[in-house]
Amino acid sequence: MTRLRIDLAYDGGGFYGWATQPDIRTVQGTIEDALHKVLRVPEHDPDEPLRLVVAGRTDTGVHASHQVCHLDITEPTLERAVGHMKAPAVTALEHRLQRLLPTDITIHRVSVAPDGFDARFSALERTYVYRIADRTGEVDPRLRGCVLHIDDTLDLEAMNRAAAMTLGLHDFGSFATPNPGGTTIREVKRASWARVPSRPLVPVHGVVTAQGTADSHDGDDATTGYVTPTLESGLVCFTIVADAFARNMVRSLVNACVAVGIGKRDLDWFAGKMAVPKREGSTGPIAPQGLTLEHVAYPPDSELASRAEAIRAVRTLP
User: Fold this and answer.
1) Which terminal CB of the chain, N or C, has fewer other CB atoms within 10 Å?
2) 10 known member of a binding site
3) For the domain 2-112, what is the CATH code?
């Protein structure tokens, strides 16, 4: 049996989350369907189930710019990916999957996983970013699928004071629901809000336009040509890094921080939610479209198996 690592990205807007569900379009279900077609394996084959194990399940409407999953497959089945291609089986599978999958899924890479690798349990940390366009910035309609627009001006100083309370090992029961037999105790390593600076894609001085090179003045950024801005200029971004996340945890923390940022709630309220991990209506999740899984980090190959073994234990607070 060979274990493959699959690095991928997807636009979550057209999916009902990651996990396979009957008669519903999901990321896992779509990729597994493609695997069955490429490898000519009947569905529900007990000898070759072709089931993906993912680093972090994303909810309906949540995106991933870099997700990781693994697949266990027999050598004869993997060799079927080659067909008439003059390429190694793993490379052939990568190319065939990319061609067959819809455009809202991209395969970055398929590779043979090192010994001890588990996409879920070997991971050291996950990084999520939530993007918001508030009243202070212009809303670019091209970003409507991955940015939440709110008609308020956010107080980032207050939101960062709230976010700082999440750092370290805590029970996030006020902001998440555990899986059966699981826990909402997680270790947050980084959590911060920042506004993306407004900056051009090209240097302001000496801009080349349709009319030629624009004039500029010493010490003055003014030009006679149009300067293309960075697409994300002015957006408010929440970046959070943790060893793992419980269900709805990131979106619920974002919603609570936003409530503080618009003055609907104060910092004492947020501190109370952190101190008493009890889920109730005021700490539910915000809309999903602003959230993207950006990165999954793993330890050196020699530590993959021990990391997976350690993380399987149910965590408790000291």
Assistant:
1) C
2) no
3) 3.30.70.580
